[in-house]
Amino acid sequence: MRLKRIVVMISGSGSNLQSIINAVNVGEINAKISGVISDKEDVFGLKRAVKENIPFKVVSKKKSNSIDKFNTENLLAIEEYKPDLIVLAGYLSIIDEKIISKYRNKIINIHPSLIPSFCGKGYYGEKVHEGVIDYGTKLSGATTHFVDEGADTGPVIMQKSIHVKDDDNAESLAKRVLKIEHEILVKTVKCYCENRIKVIGRKVRIS
After folding, report:
1. CB 205 within 8 A of CB 191
2. Residue of 85, 150, 166, 167 whose CA lies nearest to 115
3. Helix (H/G/I), strand (E/B), else coil: 166
4. Catalytic site residues?
């Protein structure tokens, strides 16, 4: 089976990127990370790419004169790496509709809650966990899903939950959810690269 080519898009430390790198290196994921794209310069995730000799590009929204230019540069960067799969691993910029249309059901995102709870506009990073704590829910977790034109509205692939402890705060909850993110993201990418995922409407089936 031909190795799938993966592009990983990041905005920060790249711990989810590292989980994919580790799984690829030990053969758990039958794929090659063909490139890393960051929307920010000088983030630690880029150092992870350098260490593994993975090509990378920075497509900065701040340095683009317009959102159209940013979206065009992003598409060109993605196309250069010829991906079979695009993974948004803590990527905080909005993916343009043209990219979504071209790579329909080939873009996976990891979100640190149980979608459809605590997701969508305004729910990212620490704000997700603050929302969970403030609301007083008993369960949280992480979700992998395909990306569509909405915010966290694409078909759900995998989810895993954990109990919210009475003494949890946003920081402690985030640390425990991050471990789940790494786990289900690797499983999701592995299944995708083994052609075991099918999308039927809003339903995702894994064989």
Report:
1. no
2. 150
3. coil
4. 111
Q: Six-digit token pair at 31?
A: 């794929």
Superfamily of domain 4-111+147-156+181-197: Formyl transferase, N-terminal domain (3.40.50.170)
Alpha-carbon span 45 to 12, nearest angstrom: 6
Where do the DSSP E strands lie in 11-151?
Answer: 31-38, 56-58, 85-88, 107-111, 139-146
CA distance 34 to 206: 25
130-138 contacts, C-beta under 8 A, 24 or more apart: 130/170, 132/164, 132/170, 132/173, 133/164, 133/168, 133/169, 133/170, 133/173, 137/164, 138/163, 138/164
What integer best gives the mean pLDDT of the chain?
Answer: 96
Q: How do residues 17-37 score in pLDDT, each as one tens digit?
A: 999 999 999 999 999 999 999
Q: Report how far apart the first and last C-alpha atoms of the chain are (Å, whole number).
A: 17
Give the pTM: 0.96
